Every structure is written in C-alpha cells, then in structure tokens.
Automatic annotation (TrEMBL):
Keyword Transcription regulation found: yes
Name of this protein: HTH merR-type domain-containing protein
PANTHER family: MERR-FAMILY TRANSCRIPTIONAL REGULATOR (PTHR30204:SF69), REDOX-CYCLING DRUG-SENSING TRANSCRIPTIONAL ACTIVATOR SOXR (PTHR30204)
Keyword Repressor among record annotations: yes
Domain spans labelled HTH merR-type: 1-68
TM stretches of this protein: none
Length: 142
C-alpha cells in the first residue's frame, strides 16, 4: 500500500509517516518509481509507535523497542532482556518529570491564590520570588 492509504488507515498524517521512516521506525520498500510501498503489518507498527509515543517514549527509544515486540502480540521477545532495564530508566525519567510538573502546578496555584481581584504586578513578583522553583528545590540550589 502507498503512503496515502497507510495514512488513511492509521489516521497519521503522511508527513509524520515520513518522519517515522527518517527515525528508522518504519522501513517501507521503494518501488522503481520511488514511491514507498508499505505492508499490512505497517498498520500495526504505526499503532504501536503511536502507543509508545503516548507512553512518553522518544523515537530513539521506540526504535529499540519495536524490534523486541513479537509480531502478532505486544509481548517482548526473549532476545531483548536489557530492554526492560532501559524501560525502567525511562519510567524513572518520566516520574521525575511528573514530579517537576506537579511542583510547578503547586507554585502556580500559590500565585493564583495570592492574586487579588484587582491584580497588582508587584504582588505577583513578590509571590514568584518567595516561592522556590521546583528545579531549584530539588537540586538544592537557590
């Protein structure tokens, strides 16, 4: 199938499919005319790419995950034991990002709560300066 059909079947824009190819996530065959030729399995691969992206993985990590997934089911093949450790590290990275975002949200809540109906710019700056940044608080720097 050509790229337009893969796009229609997956709901993924053609430009994004080309990007997946550039990142090594898709490997379509090339016709003599230069057109990309996708296989039926690529519909499943695109779905997996979308799911892994939604899980917070970057394309470089996804490129290492895809070959480790069994063709017909979302299980890891036995030949990829180190992948689980890599995924645990990704999970830790995402957890740290969530912690930072939650601290940022709490800081914004403090700023919003301190804002009077007739908001004064100086009060805003005082609250911001008095509230430690999530990154500063975590790193111990001030």
């Amino acid at each position: 199938m050509r790229i337009g059909e893969l796009s229609r079947r997956t709901g993924v824009h053609e430009r994004l499919l080309r990007y997946y190819e550039q990142q090594g996530l898709l490997r379509p065959l090339r016709r003599s005319s230069g057109y990309r030729e996708y296989e039926e399995d690529d519909v499943t691969v695109v779905g997996r790419i979308r799911s892994l992206l939604a899980a917070g993985l970057n394309t470089a990590t996804i490129a290492t995950v895809l070959p480790c997934l069994q063709k017909d089911e979302p299980r890891l093949v036995p030949s990829c034991p180190s992948l689980v450790a890599d995924l645990h590290r990704e999970r830790e990275r995402i957890t740290a990002a969530i912690t930072d975002l939650q601290a940022s949200r709490a800081m914004l809540d403090t700023v919003i709560a301190a804002a009077p109906k007739e908001f004064a710019a100086q009060n805003f700056l005082d609250v911001i300066e008095a509230t430690p940044s999530p990154r500063t608080a975590r790193s111990g720097k001030g």
